Amino acid sequence: MTTPPTLPRPASLQFSDPGAPPAIRTEGLTRTFRVPGRGHEEVHALAGVSLALEAGSFTAIVGASGSGKSTFMQCVAGLDQPTSGSVHLLGQETSALGRGALARFRADNVGFIFQDDNLVTSLSARDNVALPGVLRRHRLPRRDVEAALERVGLAPKARRLPRELSGGERQRVAVARVLAARPPLVFADEPTASLDLVSGEQVLDWLRESSASGSTVLMVTHDAAAASRADEVLVMEAGRVSAHLPGGSAAEVSAAVLRTRGQSLPEGPAEETVAEARP
Ligand code: ADP
Ligand code: MG
Fold this sequence. Notes:
single chain, 279 residues, alpha/beta, Rossmann fold, 6-stranded mixed β-sheet, 34% helix, 23% strand, disordered N terminus, binds adenosine-5'-diphosphate, binds magnesium ion
């Protein structure tokens, strides 16, 4: 497998006014879970994450399973409450907002692509793509919805319900929703995990396209090859960001992850993903 060439960093430049606040900023973010049935035992899923991501950037957070990636994304996106620390999105302290205001902020500004559970089960593919407009109370132009379904190859299946689509197709509906609504922030948690190689590459192309058209894209993944498609790669280990790469090949990303775990990559063709490298 060859690593696709890194595309020039696109429209982000047009947004990276040095005086502009970062699109995503976290300060000392922690999240502690109680372990049920274990008295006072606690899991420190996030142990203090501070970072700033500029508008229009495409960043991957990579790390082994259990390193805290999903918890981080949930806390940043306001789907979970951090134990301490703060989150600023688009210059607003979202971690200080109440539930209603947070839900409105998400509806106006955030698009999600998850491994599963991307869609409203009672809505057709087309209505799922159009949903952000409904939530914002500002309908998306019909042609944008149709064009997005067309882009991901689902125009012929637009009337199907999620359960009538394959996992990969459901994933593409979620991508179409982001392409149609162009939210300022896109959060993707393991967006390629349930996809074959070709579909996974396509999803990564579309994420790049979103960032090129101005969205700030944050993706978390255990897959070094997927992470290597981002402009910047942060390595997460035990609830902390342990390394920062200005992009890099899949092999370089794998090596960085293994280094933070105190392991090293065996010699040979460097195609390992973090998943394969896990004990
Ligand atoms: P990743 O996405 O990197 O695989 P997670 O963020 O899902 O990791 O989990 C980080 C750690 O927090 C793991 O040890 C996990 O078991 C723990 N964890 C996550 N969610 C919960 C929860 N709701 N209750 C208890 N522990 C949790
Ligand atoms: Mg996860």
